[in-house]
Amino acid sequence: MQQQYEGYKDLADSLQSASALLNLERKSQLHQDIITICNHLVNPSFRIAVFGPFNHGKSTLLNAMLGNRTLPIDLIPTTGASITVKYGSDVRTRIMLVDSTEIYRSGTEILQQFAILDGNRQMRKDVSSVEVFCPHPFLETGVEFLDLPGTNDREEQDNLVREKLLSADLVIQLLDARKLMTLGERENLRDWLLDRGIKTVIFVANFLNLLEPDEQKQVQNRLLFVAESFRAELPPGFSNLYRVDALPALRARLKGDVAAANSSGLAAFETALQNIVGILQSNRGSVRLPRVQAIASQIQLSLKAKIDSIAIEIKSFDDKQNSKIEIKQKAANLIYKGFTTSIGELRNWLELPKLLTKYQADAAVALAENNFKAWQINSLKKDLTQLQLAVVKWLYQAYEFFQEERPQDLLIPFPSEPQVILPSKPNNNDDLSEPGSIAVGGGIGWLLGGPVGAAVVGSISYLLNKNIQKQDEQLAKESYHQEVAKLCITAIEDYLSSLSSQGLSILAEYERKAEKVICFEFSQEPVEVSSKRDNLQRLQNGFNHLLQELEKAKIFSNHQAYKEIPKNTNINRKYLPQPERVKLSPEKDPVIKQQQEKTAKNSGTRVESVSPPPPPKASPSPRPEGVEAKFREWELNEEIARMKAEMRSPKACRQTSPGSQTSKQQNSTQSNKAPNQPETQTEKDKITCAYGILGLQTNASQTEVKQAYRTLVKKWHPDLFVNQPQLLKQAQEKMHLVNDAYTILSEK
Asked: Which terminus in the chain has less CB density within 10 A, N or C?
């Protein structure tokens, strides 16, 4: 039995811990019930409470059972406190006051001072507990009697009775046979006993002796109906209804009149009571735990309400944060995608083979024509600046979005202008300068001049467009202007090689630094949210611990344990977008290619098989891939602009968690529904015309509008018709109409 009490102690501790988490008011009913049931769980005594309205003879019945006038009896409701009657070697009384003062007296006369109602029928405010010790053999078995104040008199007394009933293992409800089961008694039976799991109840009818014999029979039938309608949980074979004429029984006991005590019904009741208690005492868990279940259910519901409320607040915060993080992550990925695309284009442009193919011919001609500086500014610098700005633009987008490290401008300097040392002049040419003359910048044309200079320019085009074979054999046959042309070509090759090498190195370092710009740090969680998260964890732990103790005690619960709250992993962490890059083969990798070229140059082997460039002055026809790239960039910019607007808008704080399927469906529906109809006829006509230009029905969704616009841009972009003047003009007119139509429908 001791082991069972220890188990109950753990359960009581768990109930009290859960109660502390609720921060209940000390005077609240639930707080009082928890204290009462926890004290009752660890009480080894079997407690019997005598319960009923005032002036029903409760104290008289107890005195009759104890065999003396232990408790105060009067014609008015006298019991002003709950009096616990325990076993003692002699009759004595202990009064505990609220200030912890203890009053210990022999006998029970002191009860007249502390345990009865005053002249105003009020209980004493300074009394905490009243205990009476009595040498009765029934009490010696570990039984306690609890004499409760009468009900239906004062609210304060009713509250005390209601609280104390929870600590009773067996309840004796005293009924007045003269006014059997009033409405108030029936309500108390339901609210104070049944609904709180108290079902070990015995009904005792008093004052039946005061009725006429025929009335006694009618009342007896009514009593049986009351007892049968209440399903008491008593041991099998025992009735839950007894008759005891309390005052005659007390008089008989005081006189020692056994026959009179038997005729009063006291002896039969005492025998049944002792047998019932003997059985229930060995399994008091079946008596106490249903009350625990009723109280624990209230605690769990209160805890759950508190947990769910805090969880909703935290989820709302997490959803808002996740929505912002999701937007930032998407923006970071889009910006990084645009950045890597732009930097890839610049890296591709800086590859030496590409530079040679695109610029060597024009640069060599400009060098020979004494026009290199102008060519560098108007052609090479213009292209490089455009590519550099395209790269830097994305970093400024990132800085505006994330406010991390401010980006640096990308500056790839040009190498020193190429220098050409002219070979010795031939004997048959008097116009050439002295051997070893140096042409700096574009000075070759000035040094050579006239037909010879023109011949050099022509030789440059010839040499670069010709696949030179057997170089050693041709050297002897080359004319002087071809030799000078080769020097120009070589000078430009060295110039572009230096630009490529230095540019790729700067670009690699710039790309590394960009990681500090295209990123964002997850914001520190506010202290109040962290505090709520910790509080939520404590509440859930208390709830789960209580649930475990209830399961150990075999008490059923409808609730499930809460899962442990995952820790916030976003604290002090940065998000760095890392889309997969396309791995280049050694032939296409610019770094490997450049290393191979340097190795070949150092070993004395000239890099050959350079693809011949298009004519120097011709403009290449744009390809559809270029238009597609421009459109992709436009889409990226449009998407980033939209996300910026979302970040600034309160709508960004909407719950857009992955599990919010309803929200997603609503958003999808809204994005695909047809635009609102205009008000004026002019607006209607413009919109109808816009749909027609895009080749759509008037009920087309925004998604269909965008797709149609995309298709028409790819088909009619003017860049596709640069070398076709007639089609170019038609494309420009078409795109003007398409852009206007898209603008009109986008604003709807």
From this structure: N
- Is 470 strand, coil or helix? coil
Span between the terminal Cα atoms of the chain, in Å: 80
Give the residue from 354, 383, 379, 368 showing the smallest Cα distance to 617: 379
79, two tokens? 């019991």
Q: pTM surpassing 0.70?
A: no
pLDDT at 467 over 70: no
Q: Are 106 and 96 in contact (CB under 8 A)?
A: no
Instruction: Classify the phi-psi angles of 589: left when phi > 0, otherwise alpha if psi is within -120 to 50, otherwise beta.
Output: beta
- How far apart CA 634 and CA 611 sit, in angstroms, is 33
Q: What SS3 class is residue 640?
A: helix
Q: What is the pLDDT of residues 207-224, one digit of tens each?
A: 888 888 888 888 888 888
Total Cβ atoms within 10 A of residue 622: 16
C-alpha closest to that of 147 among 130, 134, 135, 159? 130
Say if residue 371's pLDDT is above 70: yes
Max Cα-Cα span within the chain: 166
3-state secondary structure 392-437: HHHHHHHHHHHCCCCCCCCCCCCCCCCEEECCCCCCCCCCCCCCCC
- Asked if pLDDT for residue 674 goes beyond 50, the answer is no
CA dist., res. 178 & res. 56, Å (int): 10
The number of beta carbons lying within 10 Å of the beta carbon of residue 533 is 19
| Beta strands 170-176 and 201-206, pairing class | parallel
DSSP codes joined into one string, 313-363: HHHHHHHHHHHHHHHHHHHHHHHHHHHHHHHHHHHHHHSHHHHIIIIIHHH
Output the pLDDT for position 694.
85
Q: Are 640 and 331 within 8 A, CB to CB? A: yes
- Per-residue pLDDT tens digits for 281-323: 888 888 888 888 888 999 999 999 999 999 999 999 988 888 8
Query: CA neighbours within 13 Å on the CB side: how many for 653?
Result: 5
Q: Distance (Å, rounded) from C-alpha 569 to C-alpha 522?
A: 9
Dihedral angle sign, alpha carbons of residues 585, 586, 587, 590: positive
Higher pLDDT, 677 or 695: 695
> What HEC string does 225-244 produce?
HHHHHCCCCCCCCCCCEEEC
For tokens 């732990």, the residue is: 541
